[in-house]
């Protein structure tokens, strides 16, 4: 038996229940992992509320780090005793231990602690594909990145600095502005007292930016479009403020033949070779010191509901980890 968070219905944090579950033995292509740290991400909220549907009753959580206890038939890339980390479905990371598909497991270098790994994998892999594949950033470019003081944002600030890219970050407070600057943002806009579009025009001398990375969604979508150069790319990769409403294609045409994409980690890391290459890139950035992943908040797994309240209330900065 192991403790885990389960939900029987969609709703607020109160639907999350801390219960005993049977773990069992891994079948073909599976592994049993004992978690040492579990990552908290906004996608967990989407599944809890039902914005992203899943079969119920079910688990939550897509990211964790721990040790392999057993593997099933056909699993060769990890073995019992290996330190591993993973990010992505299926849900169920909010648990002390679980049996899961071994395909998503990546061996974790000894130099990276479990808490750091659980805090960085989903967010770090997201930045990796956003900056290297969704839009291949080049030194000297200026970009706009929303929620720059969040978990993904702070990694993005550091990665952009390492690439020689000028990142304009948006934040909701002066405290978060200072945090983003320390982590490498070239410019910071406090959207609660500054006009984002006007500030982008000022910073870029009217040129605007070639790409906007937006995980906020409904509240920022139109302003993001207004910050793009003709032929620019709008990357909408999250819905923290709510889902983006339907968009008329004329909105893209009228602003200069803009491009729009809605990427997901699952698509970019679907092939094992891509996942391993992305993880090695991320691990290298962390081990070299170019990226420091700060766990700003920790909660016991039993208090996952309170962690969700803090996340949704925008009371968190950087990364948050649940401890089984």
From TrEMBL:
Pfam family of the protein (one): ADH_N
Gene3D superfamilies: Medium-chain alcohol dehydrogenases, catalytic domain (3.90.180.10), NAD(P)-binding Rossmann-like Domain (3.40.50.720)
The keyword Ion transport is assigned to this record: no
Lineage: superkingdom: Bacteria
Domain Enoyl reductase (ER): 11-322
NADP keyword on record: yes
UniProtKB keywords: NADP, Oxidoreductase
Name of this protein: Quinone oxidoreductase
Organism annotation: Massilia consociata
